[in-house]
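Comment thread on ticket #2218

A.B. wrote:
> Attaching the input chain for the structure job we discussed in standup.
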Amino acid sequence: MEQRVTPRRLTFATWIAALGAAALAWVLTINMSAGMPMPAMMPLPAFLVFWIVMMIAMMFPSVAPAALLWTHTIARTSSGAQQAWRMVQFVAGYLVAWAAFGAVLYGAIFELSSLLSHRPGSSGIAGAAIFGLAAMYQVTPLKRACLLHCRSPFAALMRYAAFPRRGRDLLVGLHHGAYCVGCCWGLMMLLLAAGIMNLAAMAGVALLVLLEKRWRRGEALARWSSALFALLALAALLRPEAFAGLR
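C.D. wrote:
> Ran it. Output below, let me know if you need it in another format.
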């Protein structure tokens, strides 16, 4: 009979796995972004591989507490290799949600690139629209509801225990990932204005996501950032040359 891991060791292992995966993904993201073509020139499968690696780098530190809660739920009914396999399913479901958003974002990148190739002077308007959309979404009820779920997923994760056993862990990861997308898609759209492969922008967005979800003033930060994005939208209109390289 397999020996179950103690809660303390389980907590430590979950954090190490999440942060280790994020660190490795940052290394891969930096290496991949150095020699890759612009996203609009990439086939969708290649873009999705790059996007998923990006999401591991940017999102795993903030999703670790939710993964930890589900890990402890799994540990009550599973042990050893079965625990690991169930966590793989949870992570896979989470990444499927972000891959679906990545496919939508790819379409937006393609359309934006086509627009700017035909109307190069519209980069300021496009930048203002992106920042304006992000600013508005930051203060919507949907953003707040998704952020509340991500900040305190305990109640939702307990309800998942009632899900049908077959495919439960995959579904839980997918469900939590959907809330995470709902919380953060507006912030990810900012990468359209800064550049999908802009490492500084990736790090800035990742930090903002982490603070929104884990800092005690995270909800207030979402509102404060809305004002900042509104100012950046105005700046894009006043200084469109700053967005001449918009992709």
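A.B. wrote:
> Thanks. Noting for the ticket: The mean pLDDT is 85.
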